[in-house]
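User: Second chain of the day. Same drill as before.
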Amino acid sequence: MHSFNDIADSTSLVSLSDMPGAIEIDGCAGTVRVPAQLPFASFVEQIDARGWALGNMGSLPHLSVGGATATATHGSGLRNRNLSASVVGIDLVAADGGLLRLNRADPRFPAAGVHLGMLGIVTHVTLAIQPRYHVRQDVYLNVPWTELLADPHGVLDSGYSVSVFAHWGSKTARVWRKHRLLAEQEGDTNGTWCGGSRAVEQSRSSGRTSATSPSSANPAHGMRDCRTSGSIGSPLQRARRSRRST
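Assistant: Same format as last time:
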């Protein structure tokens, strides 16, 4: 997962799929202890129901917590750190069969945060959580690279989460911008940004577009948008929005 090397190549692989899947929320500490094999999408609605959320998630709902944090899977923009940054504790089985629990008070913890699977079998990961919040997502199409490169810092710092998707050889890009909102605040409603236009709805039957309706768009050029989250949707909790992402 975003680790393009042979580190996971082995003749023997250990699966945690049969391990118990219960999570443990500690509201006083602001943490959730999660079995490492669980995908993010499998538990975010549970913490959402308790009024909590993660600070950041991967775009793909099936990413396992153990795998995504072990490889420092990336954040987005200038404000979201990688997924390993939310790890505050790790439970693992060491090579001698002993159980080891590390937290940020342990001097060994900095080496364990991005362990690349080299410290043992990680059974649980404890993540920092925060009060539930809302996010608005807007997608801008055909944004000229000349505009993006004129102020890359400003572009990547223009939202809570900013992602730029390129198509090889194209002079334009697609930009995903997300903003944290207060309750049902509407957020950005501009139809254009940085020389690009906001995604609009495209009828699957007629191919016609409507400039007044929201839609979704796929980060990969030319791919269908049927499994992507809405690009101009109503504000939703971060947990629920992320579960619907591609």
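Confidence is low (pLDDT under 50) at residues 201-215, 233-246.

User: Great, on to the next one.
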